[in-house]
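pipeline stage [seq->struct] | target=aldehyde dehydrogenase (NAD(+)) | organism=Mesorhizobium marinum | residues=503
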Amino acid sequence: MTLVNETSALLSKLGVSAAALSAGDLAVSSPVTGETIATVAQVSAATAANAIDEAHAAFLEWRKVPAPRRGELVRLLGEELRAHKDELGRLVSIEVGKIPSEGLGEVQEMIDICDFAVGLSRQLYGLTIATERPGHRMMETWHPLGVVGVISAFNFPVAVWSWNAALALVCGDSVVWKPSEKTPLTALACEAIFARAVKRFGDDAPHGLLKVLVGGADVGEALVDHPRVPLVSATGSTRMGRAVGPRLAGRFARAVLELGGNNAGIVCPSADLDMALRAIAFGAMGTAGQRCTTMRRLFVHESVYDQIVPRLKKAYESVTVGNPLEGKALIGPLIDKAAFDGMQKALEEAKAAGGSVTGGVRVDAGHAEAFYVRPAIVEMPSQTGPVMEETFAPILYVMKYSDFDAVIAEHNAVGAGLSSSIFTRDIQEAERFLSAEGSDCGIANVNIGTSGAEIGGAFGGEKETGGGRESGSDAWKAYMRRATNTVNYSKALPLAQGVSFDI
Ligand code: UN1
């Protein structure tokens, strides 16, 4: 079966009509072969504004539905995802080029967040707070917020939507989603899956709870500027975040920004090197280096450098790069030519800065328009040039260190602050890395790589990563508004702070 036929068969199983695949002028290509697999319709900014108004009307109804009942819709969404895990996972592999276990893993991440959100729908707790006034009670109430705008990136085309949507829906919000222009098909699939969950749920799900807007930057801008969107959760480059953040701030809307990462690992003298090797390999090469959590920098203590770096280089030379759909390769393609060019440019810059490069060359998979590349490991004399920036490709810069305090300072010396990890069996090093004086990232791990976080924790990072938190823990609070309520059940009117105002 050709890729075009397989894509259309998968989408039809998922509930997307064949007509939608040739409905417009946005060409969707698969990075697996580089061929065009669909041409879908894009909406205009005016249509986007109407969709936001519809989603707002849906919010006005949805906010009245009790939260545990809202959780039932997300439970059904999780059921639909379970039932269609294979098809959606395969579609992720076709549209993004992920290997099968990672395509399926992304859908599993969606199922996990649905389960989490269902539990959460009975746990949207507020505090009761002691008041200083007699006969008074003070409490917090969490209310639905409104339309949540979601702008997602190509690399996790569906999981990141689900982190936001599952929380938003149990929190009583509606969702307007602008997927990456590179991955509209998986978004259309999610729209159809969600529609089935809504149908099973019944009449109390208002029309317009989820709007999917396939379109360009003008559609993203419509979402960012619309006064009826109190929160935009945006995943993408730091450049995108710099454009979006101030616009949201300008109208006092909330931003959950999940931007670039320049994630590092530190290998200490006591590290279990076999374990570190495997963790680094997955963290740096997995998903062809196209996770925001991908390990991009590695600091290795001089006493173990010669024991681990040659082994890593060997792994880079031998790892299987190739067509992810055939099921044997560990590294699939880059998303497009621009990603390949960006990688080559970074490698040239690294060489100019004294780096010694292993790998990084194009791998011929028999498709002129598909960009497969051998991952690159670059030994650098110091942390300079391209090491300071995120290049969204499989490049791992390796540097030698001798002093623990100095390596922590170097670790934190880049703009981004998403994920980090240390490999050590020394409890003092581990704890110092996790302490206030240690890693400055939103995610800090011990004896685990930088990527592959579970949904139960809050996901996001500091500094140029944008500061937002999605997914687990108490990330839900960004999707609700908090009211502090004080109730006077006495017959007097004592004022706080001892103020008297007798008229
Ligand atoms: C992303 O790359 O935008 O921690 C998200 C991870 C995944 C999510 C990555 N759970 O690598």
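stage status: PASS
auto-comment: The mean pLDDT is 97. The pocket of 2-aminohexanedioic acid is lined by residues 109, 155-156, 160, 235, 291-293, 451-453 (CB under 6 Å).
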